Fold these 2 entries.
Entry 1:
Amino acid sequence: MSGTKAPEKYRRQRRQLQRVLLDTHFYFGCKRVSLALEPDLLWSTVYFLRSLGVQIHTAVTSTRSLLLEKLPLTSVTLGDLEDFEQLAVGSDLLIGNSHVSAIAKRLNIPLCRQGIPIFDRLGNNQSTKVGYQGTMQLLFEIGNLLLAAEEANGNN
């Protein structure tokens, strides 16, 4: 846009992300993910996951927002964690904050912690969540959760 090259640091990170996308995309196709997030994080996460071939099983948020109308989903539930637990049955992965961890345990579905609050993990405030580095970290986290679930179910 500016007519100048991006700094080498960011060009290198972009190349790394491209390689990570190539290496990890096999693990995401047709996986069913349920999300319990605030509207802004829900919006960006839905678009990101769909670009990986992930199916959004259910999306629940607690706040009205114009962003919700722009989501490429047939429905978004304006509800609470009880609604989320009922709708998330049959998912391969849950994405939400630490309040979703009890649901993940009851449903025996792995949880990728995103949003606020995250009070049951150390160092979350020190991890990168944006840019090429943050995207790579999220890909690895989700991929590893899905791999671990498959291994636990004997689907190596």
Entry 2:
Amino acid sequence: VVTNGRRHPQRPPKAYPGELIYARVIDINGSQCTLELKVASIKNDLKHFSEWHNSDRVNAFWGERGTAEQHKAYLKKQLVDPHVIPVIGHIDGTPFGYFEIYWAKEDNIAPFADSHDYDRGFHALVGDTPYRGPHVVSHWIASLTHYCFLADPRTMRVMLEPRADNDKFINYLNVSGYCREKDFNFPHKRAALMTISREHFFESHP
């Protein structure tokens, strides 16, 4: 299959909006909580999705401030794109963040990362302030990475491309086992290529 001039495998059908694709029990400050990843649903998620993007903190990195209608159109586009799964993260039923899990081969990162057929990556946005910080970040980084490796046994590498000056998030990724392969220039930002291999993930997350 060829998308935007890039040859890649045919991707499997995506889960439906609102469908649970991953769940695990995590420990936050001594309390047992359930972290869930569900495919974004316009009906259920547009309100908080729009509120998150209109916060100064999120807009500084995503640049998607706008109206609810604009955010609805954005979500619709992601929901029909075969190379992306837009996901809402929940902790004990409360939505806390938005993530885009993508196949790297047909993503904009491909020419910078020497992407293989089944490499994956994700973009991350934590909307609710109480769920920011190291006590939660390590859990959702591990959970999203775990999902990527579980979803297809042929996925050997997961990657992210945060802004090169986003030192806090890059440090969180380092602590979670990711390595900084290089920095490179996207048209809209200077980015750091952060990657983790299947072997290293399962060795460091028993």
